[in-house]
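Hey team,

Filing this mostly as a record. A colleague (T.K.) asked me to run one chain through the structure pipeline before their review meeting, and I want the input and output archived in the tracker in case anyone asks later how it was produced. No errors, nothing strange. Just documentation.

Input sequence:
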Amino acid sequence: MAGFHLSDLLELPLPRFDVAPLLHTKAPQVTGVRVQLEMQTLWQQFDQLDTEMIVTKAGRRMFPTFQIRISGMDPAAEYVLLMDFIPVDDKRYRYAFHSSSWLVAGQADAVAPSRMHFHPDSPARGAQWMKQTVSFDSLKLTNNLLDDNGHMILNSMHRYQPRFHVVYADPAPNSHLNAHRNFSSFSFPETRFLAVTAYQNHRFTTIL
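Output structure:
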């Protein structure tokens, strides 16, 4: 579509922290968008145990899978959906088996290369996104800093917050000039997790 290219999103000024956008600065196509986390009960179960998410060199799908339901979109407008992951803090962790808890083990490793994962159905009209659950089941996590498969690169033993972004695919000429107005970001505290190469807390095996 004229005026919009996925490559424009690579320069998107996504917020570093989970701060509610100022509604009056946003395009009307995104101001009314609302997002509900699916499988919230399962996420909360994991969160109570300090969620651990397995990462591998080859790439591993998330469990629980990040799934959401969306409302408030302009049915006729087109949107791109994407995710990224940001460090929760600047710490590296280790699991203390004697106390079944995570402890700070030192300063975080160098930040892994920042990537975005685009939902494969993007762009699509709001009516399509809103009619069913949106699942990011194709997203994979890796700890391979040299990954060339497009997986999300994370450091093991670090804590992360997944973020979800809705971007209005503005067809207007020079739409990149309004990029800061055309997106809205969402995060859910219960989806925070520690990246691990194997489950440290044995209690996770009772949930799976």
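Quick notes for T.K.: The two ends are 43 Å apart (CA to CA). The CA atoms of residues 46 and 204 lie 8 Å apart.
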